[in-house]
Design brief:
The complex is a heterodimer of chains A (296) and B (181). With 296 residues, chain A is an alpha/beta fold. Chain A contains 8 helices and 12 strands. Chain A has helices spanning 21-37, 41-53, 57-76, 104-118, 162-165, 178-193, 211-221, 234-248, and strands at residues 2-4, 10-12, 17-20, 86-94, 97-100, 142-148, 153-160, 169-173, 201-209, 263-273, 278-285, 290-295. In chain A, strand 1 (2-4) and strand 2 (10-12) form a beta hairpin. Classes of the chains: A alpha/beta (296), B alpha/beta (181).
Chain lengths: 296, 181
């Protein structure tokens, strides 16, 4: 749209889109309940592929129970894992969006509190790692904002359990260590995690950027939909397939009881990095993979 | 072959890592925060909130129960976060633990010395497991919320023997069998 500054000079201004933060709050509340009770269909499909590939009888039994658990959870509205997690929100906002009705961050937190209360979900956050007093309503959310051109809004909620987050790792490799060093780091992380990350896991890997960017990329990589779909970059897709092989060769298996399927998906995201650096972050997600996205 | 067993267990030595069992009886829930309070109580010479002799601890912090339900979602949490505390309970007669994930060497040695077994429940099957819990009441530390100590009655609760009295560990033996070089 062209505006006139009053002096006869046309000035380019964008059409602003106005969004009430109450809308964001309602969406977050709804997604928190959905994500904790209904395993995404593509992730159920990934578990079914895992069941078909698993060779160990105990491993197959674990897959059967996981799939049955997902059915019962949705039918009876009982959260499929008692660790209803940290609410991680990826919010991609078009720069022509104007939020009204108060603080966006506070609206997201109100949405989390509402969803966790109404969905009978566990409040699992403490206000400080030191004094460890429960915040009572599972807030604050962990929000990552991205500003992009346009007026769209994409909101993704990842409900992150601690068991698998605790087994995640970040290392500043040297360029000389290269992709081979990264492979070794991935397998080492999976072996160290063993049963504690609740396999079969989804593995999010962030390569490049700086220390902080690698970690956020790894977390975002977990949200790829559908689970197990290859990276659009053929080199990364090849690497993902190799890493799935290497991880499954560990024999850790479903629930760590031994088997041929330890991961159902490896998602790798990469970013430009420094000539002296090769940051690698590995974020693990348990089989209770809880992700929901909407476009507002 | 799945064996149905009542708690307290009568014959610990007959259990072997990898055995599939259905457990019925009384268990007490406790996680990191409750264990820290057990340690404080013991060092102050105070009694624990339940008789640990012959007892079973389930490492779990359930979700809130919906109206009309006994308990919410209730699957096992990572047991290793309680490794620092478990030996002091095992020495006092704790008979069994239910959780997920590996135990450290000190816990395994304490289990072998004093006679205690560790069962693995399948994490992430919390909706299914909650159906095996027929009663739940808070017995201590209500202020800890999900981490309060609860007395649960379980019925045909599925688990696998992870650490037995004979030194076997399913988390070593299972993956070793399926590892490809």
């Amino acid at each position: 749209m062209r505006d006139d500054d009053g002096c006869g000079t046309p000035v380019l201004v964008a059409e602003l889109r106005t969004v009430d933060v109450a809308e964001v709050q309602a969406v977050v509340a709804r997604l928190a309940i959905e994500a904790n009770h209904e395993l995404r269909a593509d992730h159920v499909a990934a578990l079914e592929r895992g069941r078909a590939a698993e060779e160990s009888p105990i491993g197959r039994e674990v897959f059967d129970r996981l799939l049955e658990n997902a059915r019962v959870s949705a039918a009876e509205q009982i959260a499929f894992c008692q660790d209803t997690g940290y609410a991680v929100v990826f919010l991609t906002i078009g720069q022509d969006v104007h939020f009204t009705g108060g603080s966006l961050a506070e609206a997201i937190d109100r949405g989390v509190a509402q969803g966790y209360r109404d969905g009978y979900l566990r409040a699992s956050l403490v206000r400080s790692p030191v004094d460890r007093v429960n915040t009572g309503d599972n807030t604050p959310a962990m929000v990552h904002y991205d500003l992009v051109p346009g007026s769209g809004i994409e909101l993704t909620l990842l409900v992150k359990g601690a068991g698998c987050d605790n087994m995640s790792a970040l290392r500043m490799l040297t360029p000389a260590a290269g992709v081979e060093g990264m492979r070794r780091f991935v397998v080492e992380t999976i072996e160290k995690a063993g049963p504690s990350a609740s396999p079969p896991v989804t593995v999010g890997i962030g390569m490049g950027g700086t220390f902080d960017r690698a970690a956020v990329l790894a977390k975002r990589a977990l949200t790829r939909n559908p689970t197990g779909s290859p990276s659009p970059d053929p080199k990364l897709a090849e690497l993902e397939a190799e890493l799935v092989e290497a991880i499954n060769a560990t024999g850790i298996g479903p629930a760590g009881f031994g088997g041929t399927v330890t991961t159902v998906a490896v998602h790798v995201e990469s970013y430009p990095t420094h000539i002296a650096a090769f940051p690698v972050a590995i974020n693990l997600d348990c089989h209770s993979h809880r992700v929901r996205s909407v476009t507002l | 072959m799945t064996a149905s067993l009542s708690l307290p267990l009568e014959d610990l030595a007959s259990l072997h890592a990898g055995d599939s069992v259905l457990l019925s009886g009384t268990v007490y829930t406790a996680r990191d925060a409750a264990h820290a309070r057990f340690a404080e109580a013991l060092s102050a010479g105070e009694p624990l909130p339940f008789d640990v002799e012959g007892a079973t601890i389930y490492f779990v912090g359930p979700t809130p129960a919906r109206p009309g339900h006994v308990i919410g979602s209730a699957g096992p949490t990572t047991a290793s976060r309680c490794d620092a505390y478990s030996p002091m309970l095992i020495e006092r007669g704790l008979q069994a633990m239910i959780g997920k994930g590996r135990r450290d060497q000190a816990v395994k040695e304490s289990m072998a010395t004093h006679g205690c077994v560790y069962f693995g429940a399948i994490e992430g099957t919390a909706a299914l497991l909650s159906r095996c819990i027929t009663s739940a009441e808070i017995v201590a530390y209500e202020d800890l919320g999900a981490e309060a100590v609860r007395r649960l009655t379980i019925e045909d609760f599925p688990a696998l023997v992870v650490n037995d009295l004979h030194g076997a560990d399913l988390y070593d033996d299972g993956p070793a069998r399926w590892r490809r070089a």
